[in-house]
Amino acid sequence: MAKKEARVIITLECMDCKERNYSMTKNKKLHTGRVEYKKFCPSCNARTVHKETR
Predict the structure, then answer these.
(1) Which tens digits make up the pLDDT trace of 5-52?
(2) pLDDT at residue 1 in the model
(3) Under 8 Å between Cβ of 13 and 50
(4) Which pLDDT value is given to residue 14?
(5) How far apart are CA 54 and CA 36, in angstroms?
(6) Do the bridges between strand 20-27 and strand 46-53 make them parallel or antiparallel, or are there none, so unpaired?
(7) Partners of 36 in beta bridges
(8) Which of 26, 45, 28 is nearest to 37 (CA)?
(9) Residue 4 clears pLDDT 80, i.e. is over it
(10) CB 24 within 8 A of CB 13
(11) Taken in order 12, 15, 17, 46, is the CA torsion positive or negative?
(12) DSSP state of 16
């Protein structure tokens, strides 16, 4: 039997320009809500808050 996967692929969207720049995985058992990271946005040319999208 295959075990249930704990990691899911998510997409991160810049909160300033609304462009989707990054995709990564997260452990859905540890982070049940939407995650936020400060990452570099090439469109804004600055470090901005990126939030998980559905």
Answers:
(1) 889 999 999 999 999 999 999 999 999 999 999 999 999 999 999 999
(2) 61
(3) yes
(4) 96
(5) 13
(6) unpaired
(7) 51
(8) 26
(9) no
(10) no
(11) negative
(12) T
Q: CA-based angle 46:18:47, to the nearest 5?
A: 15
Element of type H or E holding 27: strand 20-27
Number of other residues whose CB lies within 10 A of the CB of residue 50 = 24
d(CA 45, CA 5): 35
Q: Of 42, 29, 27, nearest to 10 (Cα)? A: 27
Q: Looking at residue 2, what is its pLDDT?
A: 65
Residue located via tokens 């989707």: 20
- Sheet of 46-53: strands edge to edge? 20-27, 7-14, 46-53, 36-41
